[in-house]
Specification:
Strand content: 5-15%
Mean pLDDT: 97
Number of strands: 5
Distance between the termini: 49 Å
Number of helices: 6
Radius of gyration: 16 Å
Strand order of the largest sheet: 1-2-3
Shape: elongated
Length: 133
């Protein structure tokens, strides 16, 4: 297994630098189920941020990209179920993607409830709005 950084996935997806995009495509084309590319949680969170902020992708488009990537058998996602669940909820609006990943990690590990000062996050199942003083 090899690991993939955010910039490799960005170049693969947006093709904004021809030489880097070609290198990213070549690398990803070599991946197999037996030798997949590992994508950690931090890369996914950063990928969403870059696609939204730098490239103006909509929530729906980002969620679709994540759905496709997670379904790719040649990619191994850290906490892939969290990514899929967060992508589904992100598409609906409300909390940001990183907040959805935090809530998913809390739920997956049984660290509940998740306390937050963020009113949007507090609307998620398993979260509690922490009251100020």
């Amino acid at each position: 297994m090899i690991a993939l950084d955010t910039n490799v996935l960005v170049r693969y997806l947006v093709n904004d630098d021809a030489r880097q995009a070609a290198a990213a495509r070549a690398l990803l084309s070599e991946l197999t189920v037996e030798r997949p590319g590992f994508v950690c949680r931090e890369v996914v969170v950063e990928l969403v941020w870059v696609l939204q902020r730098a490239y103006g992708f909509s929530r729906g488009r980002i969620a679709g990209v994540l759905d496709e990537l997670v379904a790719t058998r040649e990619l191994a996602f850290e906490a892939g179920n969290d990514v899929a669940r967060a992508a589904f909820m992100y598409r609906q609006g409300g909390a940001g993607f990183s907040d959805l990943m935090i809530a998913a990690a809390a739920k997956r590990t049984g660290a509940c409830p998740l306390y937050t000062f963020d009113r949007q996050v507090a609307q998620l199942e398993g979260t509690v709005l922490l009251k100020e003083g």
